[in-house]
Amino acid sequence: MMTIDDIEKRILAEVADIHKTPTGAYNIRYNGKAQSRNSTENIVISSKEDGTGIDIRIKDGTVNQSCCIPVVIAKTGLKDVVTNDFYIGENCDVQIVAGCGIHNCGDQDSQHDGLHRFFIGKNSKVKYVEKHYGEADDGSKGGNIMNPVTEIYLDEGAFMEMESTQIKGIDSTNRVTKAEIKKDAKLIVRERLLTNGTQEAESRIDADLIGENSSANIISRSVATDKSKSVFYSRIVGKAPCSGHSECDAIIMDDAKVLALPGLDALSPDAALIHEAAIGKIAGEQLIKLETLGLTPEEAEAAIIDGFLK
Amino acid sequence: MLKLENIRYEVADEKGSDKEILKNITLDIPEGKFVVITGPNGGGKSTLAKIIAGIYKPADGKIFFDGEDITDCSITDRANKGISFAFQQPVRFKGIEVLDLIRLAAKDKNLTPADACKYLSEVGLCARDYINREVDASLSGGELKRIEIATVLARKSRLTVFDEPEAGIDLWSFQNLIKVFEHIKELTKGTVIIISHQERILDIADEIIVIEKGEIASKGSRDEILPGILGSDAAVSMCHVQKEAMPRV
């Protein structure tokens, strides 16, 4: 039988690629409590005074360093709510990994609602990687629920690339991402989402381009299979001479449902905003091409989905 | 190595009646030959290529590969028996990179980027510029054609069928591509069938088969057939194609 340690190890590997004690700054949250933590000279992690989460403070000029704050829930019926604030100084270049995994071993729902706020200083670069994963013991009926909220405040000249992936085992998710982008700042969001069974996933992304020469590029790819439902809303608001682009592609299969509502709101005549959205089945010619390489129809379908969500 | 016996193929026309695209095609393609199937547009050449690959099922007739009846075999089964097919319009995939596609073609998940690059170099692409590119709309028609050919080379099949490799590419890309076909027998180390009306491809064939109105109009060695079709719709120079494609002002 799998021990709690084994479950934690596997989930940490899935969501944060952690295979042993991490180096550098990290905070591992386990079943709603901080389990282990390490700060470095430049990246200081501390508990909030009101106990609602952690603050991560990164000094000006911190480069080529990373911070990892994974969350593991291995308990049925737990509702974990946390607020984590990232205060990133000026002229930094850092990577932040913040995955969450749930192992539900019973019949009650387990839920993680995380609010992450990023205050990114002038001319700093941040890569933010967020992976959500769920699994359950055989026969357990409890659902895995995640409702992440991400708020991003980019100061002048700052850059953030956010990669969020939810591929497996989350029964219900309601994801909200909001960004405020100042002069010469840039945001890239890449979202990958797969739903199956009767899962439901909703993602809403709002990006406000408030400064001259600011830009946002939002790329969402989703695959909905079985009887699942996937909903994507995006809204890019151009309040200054700026550029915004959103791209929403979805593969729909079986009896799934997909709703995509990309929105553009130009409040300045110099706002250049574009959106693209496409929903469709896997093209027959794509399957045939891979079959001519010797793949079975099932292998071809899996290869197309793997590539699409990579 | 490949035998077609009395292959017939039909589709429903606008009025719902059956229209015969191929009428009793019987062919014997010997091992190791470079065969070009040519003929006017709409004659059934591409349909025949797709029937060989298993993409279309014939209404009647039999297909034998190395003596085995493969008429009812799926596309996958035929591919695994050693038949490759290069598409006239290469397929695009969002997210699948050139390296991924070559690894799928080579059936080797661990194929190194350096080994995959060899196939790209063989089709005249600077490998390091392409190996991590997605096989999507960001690639031009000529680039996609070359990648398509690289994927079939990676399969090292005993029989490779190219469906109109010159279609959809510009004069300059075609001139570069022709060099690949001049060495195609060495590169594939197998039997090659090319559907083409290009004089420069016909020029390097061992054998030529002319298909018109769904039937074999003539077949034989290049020296026997080519002089009779030069200047016709079955054998056109690239310049002729380019002129036809020019807008009339």
Counting DSSP E segments of at least 2 residues, the number of strands of chain B comes to 10
Bin the helical content of chain A: 10-25%
CATH superfamily of chain B: P-loop containing nucleotide triphosphate hydrolases
Task: Quickly name the level 1 CATH class of chain B.
Answer: Alpha Beta
Major β-sheet profile of chain B: 6 strands, mixed
The helicity of chain B comes to: 25-40%
Strand order of the largest sheet of chain B: 6-7-8-3-9-10
Low-confidence runs of at least 5 consecutive residues of chain B: 241-249
Examine the secondary-structure arrangement and name the CATH architecture of chain B. 3-Layer(aba) Sandwich
Separation, N- and C-terminal Cα atoms of chain B: 50 Å
Structural class of chain B: alpha/beta
Supply the number of helical segments of chain A: 3
Radius of gyration of chain A: 20 Å
State the order of secondary-structure elements of chain A, H for helix, E for strand.
HEEEEEEEEEEEEEEEEEEEEEEHH
Beta content of chain A: over 45%
Indicate the overall shape of chain B.
Answer: globular
Please identify the structural class of chain A as seen in this structure: mainly beta
Q: Strand content of the residues of chain B, in percent?
A: 25-35%
